[in-house]
Amino acid sequence: MNKYNPPRMNPSSLRSRFATRFLRTLSKINAQKPTSSSSPTEIFRRYRRIKAAADKSMAYSVRSRRTWSRAMLWKLRTRPCGRRSVKTSTIIKSREARKTRHEKQNKNTTTTTTTTTGEDGVVFGVEADELRELVPGGEAMDLYNLLDETAHYIKCLTTQVQVMKKIADFYSP
Amino acid sequence: MESNAGTTEPRSNLTASDGAQVTALESLHFTDEIHRLISAPVTDSSTSFMALLELPPPQAVELLHSSDSPKLLATSSPNVEDFKGSFHFPSNTGLIERDARFSGEANNSNGKRNSPEPKDLSANPEKAVKSEPAETESSQPLVSDPALEKRSIKRKDRENKVKGSTKKSKTAANESSEDAEKLPYVHVRARRGQATDSHSLAERARREKINARMKLLQELVPGCNKISGTALVLDEIINHAQSLQQQVEFLSMRLAAVNPRIDVNLDSILTSESGSLMDSNLPSLVMPVMWPEVQGNGHRQQYLHQWHVDALHQPVWGREEVCNNYITPENSLLTYDSSTNSETLHANQLKMEL
Fold first, then answer.
1. What is the distance, to the nearest Å, from the Cα of residue B92 to the centroid of all Cα atoms in its chain?
2. Chain A residue with minimal CA distance to B230?
3. Partner of A164 for a Cys bridge, out of A49, A80, B195, B251, CB 3.0 to 4.6 A?
């Protein structure tokens, strides 16, 4: 008989970090909810919270190493509750403002070059805007960094989808 | 003879110190020519030429002094030949050395301005040396001509080398400047037929970087390898990212809908999840299956109804990806309820698998 040894998991991989964080928040959300929650509105509210939790846990797993994670964290912090944690949001906002200003300067200097360089620059100008909308924090990035961030963002999204799918499969028969 | 006519002119120009030497060597024609050469650069403007001829005149004077008393008074053709040969040789080497030195300096410095300078430098000594054999033609034409040819060939080679080296130096300088600016970046060498402008080089480097990133993205996104053309690849990438975002939303909706029935111990979940996550990866066929379902309707509220259908569908092709060992406990958990018994059963079974 072949013995099945499950491969050892890397405790510091993105997947494990996201999984642990997300599960923790999920259990918290589940603990909070009332028992009678089959109405669509309740489910919708919970959906929003779970989605925010997923995004937040993913962004926290990446920390501040990536621009999109920083932008996402800032968005999550400032959007839902404006009344509390204003200090942190202002600090983050100032940091982000400085960063975006610096990046905008880069963008101004580079967008001109992107449009002037042959075909690639002109073509990228159209799709690059769509990419910027997709990737959080992509508005103030030059093309090269934008592609970099997109690659990492797609990688993180795939892990997020995988983990959530596993959890959903685990819970639902 | 013309040489006699020539002697009168420089004699009038020469200073008193030189006058004694000239009178001593009157018989030799070429000394006057040498003095003409020495005086010539004073009228000429280029300083490099002056620098070039710094060496020969003192050498010439030395040689004149050295060969003054013993040899020249007993003037005969062999002595003249020797002297000429010896005179030519160091002057030639001196001039060649100077030329080589200046061409070396041209290599070190940057830009196009160096290319005309070596030419000038080479042209002037060419003129100077040509005039030397010209005056000896009268006496020894055979010796001078091959020497002149050699010198001209040498100078041509040096000119070519200088031209090639300026090109190389430009690229080398650009490379070094690029390296100095961005050390960990890829070296860019100007290929044949491409502009060696610093702007175009930087642009080319940037384009290459962007193309490398595009290749990376192509590998990440499934199905992008076959597509050619950056615009289509970017469209594909954008679609992929959008689909992933929507999948996250749907999954969170699903979790929100499904979860109220579940209350499981966290530790067991974590261990089970860690085990299950390691085993299987999301296959590409899963996403295309999701995609048409997504495109079916655009309203969020309707998704709740759809998910009941999805929940039925999911286990069917969800199990394709899950490892075989996990199918059996999930099958046993089909009759799942929120009681603690089922929780412990679930957790225990999953722990067994691990």
1. 38
2. A120
3. B251
